[in-house]
Amino acid sequence: MQTVKVDLGRRSYDIAIGGGLLAEAGERIAALRPGARVVIVTDDNLARVHLSALQASLDKSGVAHSTVTVAPGEASKSMTVLSQVISGLLQARLERNDLVVALGGGVIGDLAGFAAAVTRRGVDFVQIPTSLLAQVDSSVGGKTGVNAAEGKNLIGAFHQPVLVIADTDLLRTLPPREFRAGYAEVVKYGLIDRPEFFEWLEENREEIFAFGPALEQAIATSCTAKAQVVSADETESGARALLNLGHTFGHALEAATGYDGTRLVHGEAVAIGTTLAHEFSNRMNLCDADTVSRVRRHLVAAGLPVDTGEVPGGLPPADRLLDYIGQDKKVKRGRLTFILTKGLGRSYIADDVPPAEVLAFLSGKLQKR
Amino acid sequence: MQTVKVDLGRRSYDIAIGGGLLAEAGERIAALRPGARVVIVTDDNLARVHLSALQASLDKSGVAHSTVTVAPGEASKSMTVLSQVISGLLQARLERNDLVVALGGGVIGDLAGFAAAVTRRGVDFVQIPTSLLAQVDSSVGGKTGVNAAEGKNLIGAFHQPVLVIADTDLLRTLPPREFRAGYAEVVKYGLIDRPEFFEWLEENREEIFAFGPALEQAIATSCTAKAQVVSADETESGARALLNLGHTFGHALEAATGYDGTRLVHGEAVAIGTTLAHEFSNRMNLCDADTVSRVRRHLVAAGLPVDTGEVPGGLPPADRLLDYIGQDKKVKRGRLTFILTKGLGRSYIADDVPPAEVLAFLSGKLQKR
Fold it and tell me: What is the ipTM for the molecules in this complex?
């Protein structure tokens, strides 16, 4: 078991990472907030697989609890479902010192965390991430929210959890596609500024996918990497934007496919987006072609898509994709902000990217299909 | 013109109070945030009365602007209308450095402020309060939010404005009932801990209601009083609860009348709630009967209701009212928290009020009708 501390002053919290931790959840929650009641937010699928173990753990430690469930899938990250979750919390008579427990992947973490942020103007929450993506990404940093018709994650709040319990055993029940998608975010941390971690991943990818000890280490390193960035810039006014490597292109792809997880899940969009960011950097004479190939090779070996042509059902024209990028919240005063790279693990924030270059690049990519 | 500074560290802001300030709004906004675009949020009624003056002022200072309007009334403080406002902000392509301007009373301030708090995880907002209630209460302290089916203001965020422009001339177009209702909150500041301000109000009430110079002074003193409490306790973990004098009873009355402003507006509920808080304090042998009479007399002279019997359409039984109090967010661990008083301007937080005493008190009040 490893513990990663996210250092945010009064809002600091621990991420416990390891096997078998779900069974200890009640004990940890009771120790953290004696006497608090808990409302678990989860989805119907996860409720079938993991809820009884969590409830048993809470019962064992004498923590009173109730549960709100939502439908599985990205469609639940909506204002409508948010209202339903809040209503569930209020009907459970959640008080200010009680806790919301988000048991699920990124969707549940974002939704339940946002519901906690705005119910009674803010109650605390605990995350028990059940996907690799959630364990390495959404459980660190306090970004919560839902999607708008105008774009992904455009409605939300910064609300830090008070504890994250990342039980690596839960990942064994993940569909392989979801596991691979989460791995795209793990790779991202290497490509931002940890080339040695990327090299380690090249060597340990098979052990990670076989649920060996390298998995816990990969998660811990990813959480440590993200925690460092977030500590330095909690509300994304500066360096935190580095975490968006692959995400500006990726979000546009997700928007263009209507957030339809049967076509493209977030991590797959990030894998393609990361590749595009490297290719675009190469086009701009920033990054050498060998690095681009090496990144593509690693993502392909992990079973991830790397080309726009791999998106089932096709994509809209380049100018429409650029519109989606323009609506992305990382736009400032009309210039485009991208995370570009000068080589392996040498990413930086480019806040003056000409939209015309992006359009030409995307047009070329789409024509190749 | 007076300026009250709300001291909240990095989130400090000024409240400008005086006549004719709406015409200066563009200049002040341009100075505060050069180059920012503005989306005005207002309601259909206020748009007819004040919008063109605000737009002219913004045009004069070269501030680009667009407008989102909602239906007037408390019903707009809902998750549904919140979604519409957020959608309007996103469609106007509001960016992180732009500003939302809330032009309206408490409903618009709460709604637009909350929309600003959660759009793109937080954009800044300016308040131009158009009601007395909004100028003395909701413009100070950063509480934003909407109502839930389960109770008033149960969904929201703490989000401080970056500037408040309180133009006292706007109050001349208020319906007299709304002006009186706002006055209930002015009186409240005297009754919390400023007996000398209450005495000053007794002497100056007529000048205030005649829009004399005492009005600006009353607003400035109220804002100063609230700012002091808020500075000491921004997120209502302690002393800020004093501002709820009259509000625990008041919110129950509003909930019991279905937030129907034709029956009871917020300030009227506060006037009755304040009277009940004093009467209940007297029943608990905390406050002398002369103080109760004096408070009643002043509120009655201002044309405000003070008895539950004055609520048109009647009220549910006492136990149902207590249920509404129990759902109020100021409940902690099953005990009831009320703001009670030991005399004129000597209010305090009583966090151990027995529900049975409240039930007996309310039963007695309701039977008297």
Answer: 0.86
Catalytic residue among B50, B77, B143, B296: B143
CA-based torsion, A232, A236, A241, A246: positive or negative: positive
**A283-304: average pLDDT:** 97
Question: Which residue on chain B is closest to A81 by alpha carbon?
Answer: B79
Could you read off the pLDDT of B54-70 as tens digits, one per residue? 999 999 999 999 999 99
Instruction: Count up the domains in chain A and report the number.
Output: 2
Indicate if B121 belongs to the active site: yes
Q: How far apart are CA A165 and CA A21, in angstroms?
A: 7
Last residue of one domain, picked from the residues B172, B199, B222:
B172
Q: Do the Cβ atoms of A236 and A246 come closer than 8 Å?
A: no
Domain hosting residue A15, numbered range: 2-172
Residues A155 and A191 in one domain: no
Structure-block tokens of residue B139: 């413009």
Chain B residues 17-36 with CB within 8 Å of chain A: 35
CATH number where B167 lies: 3.40.50.1970
Cβ-based neighbour number of residue B67 at 10 Å: 17
Task: Decide if B6 contacts B163 (C-beta within 8 A).
Answer: no
Residues of A in contact with B329 (CB under 8 A): 95-96, 120-121
Nearest CA in chain A to B152: A120
Query: B120 contacts in A (CB within 8 Å)?
Result: 154, 329
Q: Please report the pLDDT score of residue A329 as a whole number.
A: 46
For the domain that residue B260 is a member of, what is the CATH number?
A: 1.20.1090.10
Using one digit for the tens of pLDDT, what is the confidence trace for B146-177? Answer: 999 988 889 999 999 999 999 999 999 999 99
% chain B with pLDDT above 90: 82
A154·B79 Cβ contact <8 A: no
Nearest-CB residue to B149 (from A87, A149, A332): A87
Q: Which of B172, B206, B239 lies at the terminal end of a domain, its last residue?
A: B172
Look at residues A166, A146, A148, A164 and name the one whose alpha carbon lies nearest to residue A156. A146
**Residue B332 pLDDT more than 60?**
no
Taking the Cβ of residue A90 and every Cβ of chain B, the question of whether any pair is shorter than 8 Å is answered with yes
